[in-house]
Design brief:
Number of strands: 12
Number of helices: 12
Radius of gyration: 23 Å
Helix content: 40-55%
CATH superfamily of the largest domain: Zn peptidases
Shape: elongated
Strand order of the largest sheet: 1-2-4-3-5-11
Length: 391
């Protein structure tokens, strides 16, 4: 493919997204002002679908058994790669958009609408996939299991951050519910007749604390008590907690999950309480497709952005984009929306997600994502490198 043709196509895409700037900013701010938590993102999904429908996309909703998930498709002039931009739009409970998903949803829409302007000249398929419930509920996990990504060759999105980073490891993640069932009794008149379920939970936390010094340095386990009893003068007959277990390697994460379960089993044995364990969710580790990431890097740098150095030991979290990356080529780059000490999942981050700097990052991400898609669709050699890469 002639480089001049590629450059001209990218120029059209950039201009189209720039023309959409007011619409995209308005959408991101509307989503920000109406935060909706996992699986309840009715307004955000509706607004995104309406914009895609107005641009001529074929919109399907719901998909994958999720009411707030959607698939918007636009066919090019013939057979070719299927490129998908993934939109997130769920908020955090009570905090709101402290993870900037309002910017992600608007950026992916912008990339899709920009690329739409040239798709009639390109061989391939463009998709905008609405993926709800990233925050701990694993919307993409469910969609992956439902086969939504089976026909996708390339899946892309960006994430707001304190720094601009091309790629970063994302940990495998397991969500574990622990419930203890004991025997209620009067805490002073008949304590010997009770079995204290709360003690079992407290013992579990102490055992996990002891486990921490004997695990890999990037692994982590953190939990909360969700129920600790009903009254101080009643021996708690029920107690519950919720743990997140994370590790860089999926196999080690499963091993670590089993060790946390054993902490609970030991606490049950020590107290006489009955324990029930349920793994309620799991994210796979993120596999970044480096040829695709390098193409994104070149495109973002052409817009005047510079990347910060990667520190693999810092900023490690988890994302359900990991599951997508195990079934198709995927990237999940980060663009700065605030100072380097900006803490994710904080009130400062909520403000940054509605800031002018946040909007600039969103527009830049939309352009770079769409330009990278142009590379994928017009450079067969690059597409072969992407599909042949196995992280």
């Amino acid at each position: 493919m002639n480089d001049t043709t590629v450059a001209e196509t990218k120029s059209i895409v950039q201009e189209a997204i720039e023309m959409l700037r007011p619409q995209l900013i308005d959408l991101s701010l509307r989503i920000h002002a109406h935060p909706e938590i996992a699986f309840q993102e009715a307004l955000a999904a509706q607004w995104l679908c309406e914009a895609a429908d107005a641009a001529g996309f074929r919109v399907e909703k719901p998909i994958g058994g999720l009411e707030t998930a959607f698939l918007a498709t636009y066919e090019g002039k013939g057979n070719g790669p299927t490129v998908a931009f993934l939109a997130e739009y769920d908020a955090l409970p009570k905090l709101g958009h402290g993870c900037g998903h309002n910017l992600i949803g608007a950026a992916s829409l912008g990339a899709a609408l920009g690329l739409r302007q040239v798709m009639d000249t390109l061989a391939g398929t463009l998709q905008l996939i609405g993926t709800p419930a990233e925050e701990g509920e694993g919307g993409k996990v469910i969609l992956t299991q439902a086969g939504v990504f089976d026909g996708v060759d390339v899946a892309m999105m960006f994430h707001p951050s304190s720094k601009t980073i091309l790629w970063q490891p994302a940990l495998a993640f397991r969500k574990l519910s622990i419930e203890f069932f004991g025997e209620a009794a009067h805490a002073t008149a008949a304590p010997g007749k009770g079995i204290n379920a709360l003690n079992a939970t407290l013992l579990t936390f102490r055992a996990v604390d002891g486990l921490r010094q004997h695990v890999q340095s990037t692994a982590c386990m953190h939990g909360i008590i969700t129920h600790g009893g009903d009254a101080p003068n009643i021996v708690p007959d029920y107690s519950a907690s919720l743990f997140y277990v994370r590790a860089r390697d999926d196999g080690y994460c499963d091993e670590l999950l089993e060790r946390v379960k054993n902490c609970a089993r030991g606490a049950a044995l020590a107290t006489g309480a009955r324990v029930e364990l349920e793994t309620q969710g799991a994210y796979k580790s993120l596999r970044t497709n480096m040829p695709l990431a390098q193409a994104f890097k070149a495109n973002l740098e052409s817009l005047g952005w510079q990347f910060d150095d990667l520190d693999p030991a810092k900023g490690l979290g988890s994302t359900d984009m990991g599951d997508v990356s195990h079934v198709t080529a995927a990237i999940h780059p980060y663009l700065s929306i605030g100072p380097s000490d900006l803490a994710i999942h904080s009130t400062d981050y909520v403000a940054a997600a509605a800031s002018e700097r946040g909007q600039e990052a969103m527009i830049a991400a939309a352009k770079a994502l769409a330009m990278t898609a142009v590379d994928v669709l017009l450079y067969p050699i690059l597409f072969d490198e992407i599909t042949g890469y196995h992280p």
